[in-house]
């Protein structure tokens, strides 16, 4: 199947997309300058399904892996859980050539990436993403983080993986709600960068929900390519990379206000993209049919558009702590048409409040 290269100024790595790819992880790792010890970080849902297969494959390739299983869910993106990973790494005697491997969704990826970046000031990091969301987005680009009670992803660093191994077959066991959550980030790529891709998603919405292997593989590869291009141009999110945050300004506020349990990340991003489209309309930046097109596709994919019962004022308080705030001003990612967005500062508070009122 596919290979996507991520070419950064200081670092280059390959994303391998192959059905059954989990069984090739060891041989792919053998092409890297790694020590024999490796720590696989996974969660309590993914571990029983795939950790044994991955560990056996690594043993066959000459590695000595150990598996650490954390609780499933956003609560594991915490300093407490990071500390459990550090303790295991120290107990195992991982050195600067030993890999930390994330086997799981975005939660495990962000957590394991953060520990790989900071343990011994950085050890090799490998992503084996098992949710659609992680395969199309979080395993690529090197954003790692844990949450703080005052906001999402507030503690973290940029730390690129050395290798990404994507096996679309593992999506067969993914719960339907998680599949849909991943589709929210997929739609994001169409809106920010590729009108034709958006049209392809609309034409194949039912096939995606039915997990057509061919369509899913194509979607995963396209998203990885689009993300790799953006990250190669602006690894540290000084400008262009902010577009990957479409829907996240309000999405992260919704996630945090719901205690990271009511809406998953992908669902909150769908609500946030809808809100961003409303703001774009209020500023007359996009046509009504662009906003309607986005709403329709998100709806067809079974994603939420609103967070009823949430308080606009509370969401506003979370917005003030967004990472894109500079000198008290949020940078908004707003749609000018499907396939094109702009980074806008100084959006009037009334337009934001009006959008928040519409989605709550
Ligand atoms: N670093 C980035 O660039 C980036 C990008 C997007 C999202 N994120 C982060 O990713 C997180 C969300 O990731 P997610 O949506 O993957 O959630 P997740 O990691 O919580 O996984 C969702 C659920 O699916 C289960 N699961 C995973 N793979 C499975 C499989 N193959 N079969 C059965 N069950 C499986 C998990 O155990 C979990 O219960 C958020 O914390 C978000 O902030 C990071
Ligand atoms: O890779 C990026 O850049 C992104 O913004 C991808 C997002 O989908 C992802 O949710 C990311 O973790 C958000 O980052 P943050 O900087 O807003 O915390
Ligand atoms: Zn996201």
Kindly describe this structure.
- With 360 residues, the protein is an alpha/beta fold.
- It has 2 domains: 2-173, Rossmann fold, CATH 3.40.50; 176-359, Dehydroquinate synthase-like - alpha domain (Dehydroquinate synthase-like, alpha domain, Up-down Bundle), CATH 1.20.1090.
- It contains 14 helices and 12 strands.
- Strands 1-2-9-6-5-3-4 form a 7-stranded mixed β-sheet, sandwiched between helices.
- Strand 1 and strand 2 form a beta hairpin.
- Helix 11 packs antiparallel against helix 12 (288-300).
- The longest helix is centred in the middle third of the chain and has 21 residues, at 213-233.
- The protein is globular, with a radius of gyration of 20 Å.
- It starts with a strand and ends with a helix.
- The mean pLDDT is 97.
């Amino acid at each position: 199947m596919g290979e996507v290269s991520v070419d950064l100024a200081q670092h280059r790595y390959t994303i391998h997309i192959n059905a059954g790819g989990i069984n090739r992880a060891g041989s792919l790792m053998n092409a890297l300058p790694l020590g024999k010890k490796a720590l696989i970080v996974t969660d309590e849902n993914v571990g029983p399904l795939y950790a044994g297969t991955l560990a056996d494959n690594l043993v066959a390739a000459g590695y000595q892996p150990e598996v650490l299983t954390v609780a499933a869910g956003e609560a594991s993106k915490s300093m407490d859980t990071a500390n459990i990973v550090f303790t295991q790494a120290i107990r195992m005697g991982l050195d600067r050539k030993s890999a930390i491997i994330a086997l799981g969704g975005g939660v495990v990826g962000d957590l394991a990436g953060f520990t790989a970046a900071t343990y011994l000031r950085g050890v090799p990091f490998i992503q084996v993403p098992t949710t659609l969301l992680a395969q199309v987005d979080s395993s690529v680009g090197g954003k790692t983080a844990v949450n703080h009670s005052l906001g999402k992803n507030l503690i973290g660093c940029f730390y690129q993986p050395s290798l990404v191994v994507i096996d679309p077959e593992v999506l067969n066991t993914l719960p339907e709600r998680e599949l849909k959550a991943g589709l929210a980030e997929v739609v994001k790529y169409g809106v920010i960068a590729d009108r034709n891709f958006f049209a392809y998603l609309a034409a194949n919405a039912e096939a995606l929900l039915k997990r057509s292997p061919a369509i899913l593989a194509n979607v995963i590869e396209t998203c990885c390519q689009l993300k790799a291009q953006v990250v190669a141009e602006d690894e540290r999110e000084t400008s262009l990379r902010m577009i990957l945050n479409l829907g996240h300004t309000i999405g992260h506020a919704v996630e945090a206000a719901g205690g990271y349990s009511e809406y998953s990340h992908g669902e909150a991003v769908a609500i946030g993209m809808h809100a961003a489209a409303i703001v774009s309309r209020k500023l007359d930046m996009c046509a009504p049919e662009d906003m309607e097109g986005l709403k329709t596709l998100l709806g067809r994919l079974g994603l939420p558009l609103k967070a009823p019962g949430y308080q606009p004022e509370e969401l506003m308080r979370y917005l003030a702590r967004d990472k894109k705030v500079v000198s008290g001003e949020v940078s908004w990612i707003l749609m000018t048409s499907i396939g094109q967005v702009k980074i806008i500062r100084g959006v009037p508070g009334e337009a934001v409040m009006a959008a928040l009122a519409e989605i709550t």
